[in-house]
Amino acid sequence: MASKQITDRAVNHVWKYPDAKLISLGIGDTTEPIPHVIASSMIDYVQALSTPEGYRGYGAEQGNKELRKAIAQKFYKDTGITDTEVFVSDGAQCDISRLQLLLGSNVTTAVQDPSFPAYTDSSVIIGQAGDFDDRNQKYRNIEYMSCGPQTHFFPDLSITPRTDIIFFCSPNNPTGHAASRVQLQQLVEFAHKNGSIIVYDSAYAVYITDDSPRSIFEIPGAKEVAIEISSFSKFAGFTGVRLGWTVVPKELRLSNGFPIINDFNRIVCTCFNGASRISQAGGLASLSSDGFKAARSRIDYYMANAKILLDAFASLGLKVYGGTNAPYVWVHFPGLSSWDVFNMILEKTHIITVPGSGFGPGGEEYMRISAFGNRKTIVEATRRLESLLP
């Protein structure tokens, strides 16, 4: 809903100011070209499809075995995760919905507050969420775990009720916070104690610059309580190419001892015909030595953008979070409605942002600023922001 409101307001703004050059720091979409070493692999694969020798039809629903091995080796080398536990998909957001189909409507759910809206929205669609309470802007059957600066962007698990499922994103979208090893150890212990399953979103893990864990499976005991989803979208610039993966460990079992990986495999084989072979060729290339190095250069570029934006908002005397382990800056405007701030920024600077309330009630008074953009545009945005506050 927030994305539609943003689009509508942007369209109205353009009608009002037809000569204004709108800058978008809102949507988390990559902007830099896919590295040639990765794109050329997809071109070669497409050309091969036009030959009798190179043509391929349906592939395995679980993904190309070579790619599954490469993902396990690159991202889970020291965790014990194997290629058979990796399921390649058309993106993390699609896998969120497939996991909801696996989990069903009778489970209880907890989400970070604020957090990526797809966790809550998919819960609504599958029938888990219950009625919406206008007074507190929450769904009655969803537990909202406060993850603001007052709790170091991590829920107070001592007061968090037990739920069947815990959606957890690190680095977090929108706050940019990467959970520490100690925090994730607490989360895994909490899940063990309560018999909960953690659905862990690591889509931005490649942006981590400190020693925070890149995967939940770096934590002992996580394979018995967690599923991890991730993506090539923000890593290799595949937002339009579409490629992701989900890891379901063999150790993760239902209360009756049945392996959850078997059920997820059935969901995948029933609801999915496999990721595009072309996308998978690009994914494999991005995990090669040259491909990974090229993809890393794009990540460094976006993180340099984040530093520029972080400094710009801090220079206005505002409290700024994020921007060090994720390509998002989370800016606090105390006492102000996030939609009012959105309108103020748009009106004064012709810049599109995202109101924090779109990520849950805990996002009120905050704005999410995306560092995905051309450097020249980012610098121009910071120049315009100088006029934001008196």
From TrEMBL:
<dbReference type="InterPro" id="IPR015424">
    <property type="entry name" value="PyrdxlP-dep_Trfase"/>
</dbReference>
<dbReference type="Pfam" id="PF00155">
    <property type="entry name" value="Aminotran_1_2"/>
</dbReference>
<keyword id="KW-0663">Pyridoxal phosphate</keyword>
<dbReference type="InterPro" id="IPR015422">
    <property type="entry name" value="PyrdxlP-dep_Trfase_small"/>
</dbReference>
<dbReference type="GO" id="GO:0030170">
    <property type="term" value="F:pyridoxal phosphate binding"/>
</dbReference>
<dbReference type="InterPro" id="IPR004839">
    <property type="entry name" value="Aminotransferase_I/II_large"/>
</dbReference>
<dbReference type="GO" id="GO:0009862">
    <property type="term" value="P:systemic acquired resistance, salicylic acid mediated signaling pathway"/>
</dbReference>
<keyword id="KW-0032">Aminotransferase</keyword>
<keyword id="KW-0808">Transferase</keyword>
<dbReference type="GO" id="GO:0008483">
    <property type="term" value="F:transaminase activity"/>
</dbReference>
<comment type="similarity">
    <text>Belongs to the class-I pyridoxal-phosphate-dependent aminotransferase family. LL-diaminopimelate aminotransferase subfamily.</text>
</comment>
<dbReference type="InterPro" id="IPR019942">
    <property type="entry name" value="DapL/ALD1"/>
</dbReference>
<feature type="domain" description="Aminotransferase class I/classII large">
    <location>
        <begin position="21"/>
        <end position="385"/>
    </location>
</feature>
<protein>
    <submittedName>
        <fullName>Aminotransferase, class I/classII</fullName>
    </submittedName>
</protein>
<dbReference type="InterPro" id="IPR015421">
    <property type="entry name" value="PyrdxlP-dep_Trfase_major"/>
</dbReference>
